[in-house]
């Protein structure tokens, strides 16, 4: 058996064993189904949800919020990173402020955003953006600063103008850094959206979980968590493909895990 | 050469300082149009400083820099510079790297590619157009870098120990390619190296610098070997050995001096 197959078999075995123990534990009464509903119950609940239109509205809402926070966060973070990366003086001046902002537990901004922007889409995106922005910013900043000096000198000797340098040297260099942090950024965007929904909203996966929690419905909470995980895994796969396409120029050893 | 207005590079009594440190003192270097000049000297003698001066990146504290008879102000727009380490963009293919300077000039990517492809062929890399730098060997990357510099058709080519990181055989191959290209389209070329064999094989004239700081020119030797030269057979000829001895008699004592100051 090839190694790869062995790994997959082992992984499937672990999951099956865990689910089986759980299921049997609940059925025999060893595990309290009020706190840990059986996997079969959870599957039933998710199936039930999937047959309702409301559930898909929730998924759609969270998806839109995630994508918007992601795009806006990356755009602002990248612009800021390039600007500060190219202006060491400004970077030195604002560095402590950025550190302070980054030190704020962003989740706590959720309530203030709900007050400012209401229960709708904007407050969710705002929270997601504050989370994504810093990841994108720090990586772009690093990317711009760590441009290989020989590459830079060579481009200058080929008479590259400032805008050419930005387009052909700084941006591609930063892109590699942004891409390598993309997975973290996507996770952050989802987290921002869901937490903001949880704090106050009328739709979305976070809202779904919050509602279940309100009536002490552990099945609903667990089912919500599973749906969310599947959601993130799906987004991750999309990111993975984007990354592979954009980084074809890289030596394979560098991003093979 | 004197009296002719066509000197490509004319450094007259040039003094270069970095703060209190005098890198180069009373440097005189004349390079004729289409002449191939190699500059040799002990490490740290300011060989690269000379190239940076010719490019206009460094301003001499005193002395005169003339390019084709005109005093150099700002950056030299007649020169192309090939660095010791090749600075290829890792995210661009070989052909896009070769055409990079053209794109910087405002040409479209398609135009640049169309011009880059024949240049890749000239340096023996036909079929490697779509390769990224990491997919090329060290010698192939050097050839891309060479094409990248020469495609801009500079009248003065500056090379700063471009082949020093390569193994002997690859270096020989590079010498052959460089000589072929230079033979086909004669340009002025200043080639910095610490390798005497390389200097004699390639150049019309070898200039020897003294040990730094405050290094200056201690002598020059005309390389009378006929052209076109056979890179692989050249080194064993009596004429080559005689030239080697002559240059070493100038350089050897300077190398010892540079060791003495370092230890």
From TrEMBL, chain A:
Matches recorded under PANTHER family: ABC TRANSPORTER PERMEASE PROTEIN HI_0355-RELATED (PTHR30151:SF20), ALKANE SULFONATE ABC TRANSPORTER-RELATED, MEMBRANE SUBUNIT (PTHR30151)
Subcellular location: Cell membrane
Domain of life: Bacteria
One GO BP: transmembrane transport
Membrane topology: Multi-pass membrane protein
Main location (coarse class): membrane
Organism ancestry: Bacteria, Pseudomonadati, Pseudomonadota, Alphaproteobacteria, Hyphomicrobiales
Domain ABC transmembrane type-1: 59-239
Protein name: ABC transporter permease
Keyword terms, alphabetized: Cell membrane, Membrane, Transmembrane, Transmembrane helix, Transport
Gene Ontology CC: plasma membrane
Transmembrane segment boundaries: 67-86, 98-119, 125-144, 165-195, 215-239
Family: Belongs to the binding-protein-dependent transport system permease family.
InterPro entries (alphabetical): MetI-like, MetI-like_sf
Gene3D superfamilies hit by this protein: MetI-like
From TrEMBL, chain B:
Record InterPro entries: AAA+_ATPase, ABC_transporter-like_ATP-bd, ABC_transporter-like_CS, ABC_transporter_ATP-bind, P-loop_NTPase
SUPFAM superfamilies linked: P-loop containing nucleoside triphosphate hydrolases
Keywords: ATP-binding, Nucleotide-binding, Transport
Any Pfam family hit: ABC_tran
Any one GO molecular function term: ATP binding
Domain ABC transporter per the UniProt entry, residue ranges: 9-236
Superkingdom of source: Bacteria
Keyword Ribosomal protein: no
Annotated family: Belongs to the ABC transporter superfamily.
Function comment: Involved in beta-(1-->2)glucan export. Transmembrane domains (TMD) form a pore in the inner membrane and the ATP-binding domain (NBD) is responsible for energy generation.
Protein name, per record: ABC transporter ATP-binding protein
Organism: Bradyrhizobium cytisi
């Amino acid at each position: 058996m090839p190694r790869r197959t062995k790994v997959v078999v082992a992984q499937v075995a672990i999951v099956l064993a865990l689910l089986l123990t759980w299921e049997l534990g609940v059925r025999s009464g060893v595990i309290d189904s009020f706190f840990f509903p059986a996997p079969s119950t959870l599957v039933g609940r998710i199936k039930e949800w999937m047959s309702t239109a409301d559930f898909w509205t929730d998924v759609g809402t969270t998806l839109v919020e995630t994508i918007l926070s992601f795009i806006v966060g990356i755009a602002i973070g990248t612009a800021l990173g390039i600007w500060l990366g190219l202006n060491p003086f400004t970077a030195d001046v604002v560095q402590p402020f950025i550190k302070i902002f980054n030190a704020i537990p962003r989740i706590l901004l959720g309530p203030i955003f709900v007050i400012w922007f209401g229960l709708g889409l904007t407050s969710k995106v705002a929270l997601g953006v504050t989370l994504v922005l810093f990841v994108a910013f720090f990586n772009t900043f690093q990317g711009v600063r760590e441009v290989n000096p020989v590459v830079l000198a060579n481009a200058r000797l080929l008479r590259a103008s400032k805008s050419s340098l930005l387009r052909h040297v700084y941006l591609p260099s930063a892109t590699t850094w942004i891409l390598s942090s993309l997975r973290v950024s996507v996770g952050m965007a989802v987290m921002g959206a869901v937490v903001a929904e949880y704090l106050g909203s009328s739709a979305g996966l976070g809202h779904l979980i919050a509602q279940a929690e309100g009536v002490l419905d552990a099945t609903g909470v667990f089912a919500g968590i599973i749906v969310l995980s599947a959601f993130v895994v799906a987004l991750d796969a999309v990111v993975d493909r984007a990354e592979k396409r954009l980084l074809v120029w890289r030596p394979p050893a560098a991003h093979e895990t | 050469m004197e009296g002719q207005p066509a000197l490509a590079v004319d450094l007259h009594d040039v003094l270069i300082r970095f703060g209190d440190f005098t890198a180069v003192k009373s440097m005189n270097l004349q390079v004729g149009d289409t002449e191939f000049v190699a500059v040799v000297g002990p490490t740290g003698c300011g060989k690269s400083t000379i190239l940076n001066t010719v490019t206009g990146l460094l301003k001499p504290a005193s002395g005169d820099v003339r390019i084709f008879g005109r005093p150099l102000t700002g950056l030299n727009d007649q020169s192309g510079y090939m660095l010791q380490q090749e600075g290829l963009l890792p995210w661009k293919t070989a052909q896009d790297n070769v055409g990079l300077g053209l794109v910087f000039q405002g040409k479209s990517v398609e135009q640049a590619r169309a011009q880059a492809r024949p240049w890749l062929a000239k340096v023996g890399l036909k079929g490697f157009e779509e390769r990224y730098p990491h997919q090329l060997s060290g010698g192939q990357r050097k050839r891309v870098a060479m094409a990248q510099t020469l495609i801009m058709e500079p009248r003065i080519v500056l090379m700063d120990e471009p082949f020093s990181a390569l193994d002997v055989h690859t270096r020989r191959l590079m010498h052959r390619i460089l000589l072929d290209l230079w033979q086909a389209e004669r340009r002025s070329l200043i080639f910095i190296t610490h390798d005497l064999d390389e200097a004699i094989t390639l150049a019309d004239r070898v200039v020897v610098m003294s040990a730094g700081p405050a290094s200056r020119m201690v002598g020059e030797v005309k390389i009378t070997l006929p052209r076109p030269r056979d890179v692989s057979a050249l080194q064993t000829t009596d004429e080559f050995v005689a030239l080697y001895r002559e240059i070493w008699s100038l350089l050897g004592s300077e190398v010892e001096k540079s060791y003495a100051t370092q230890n």
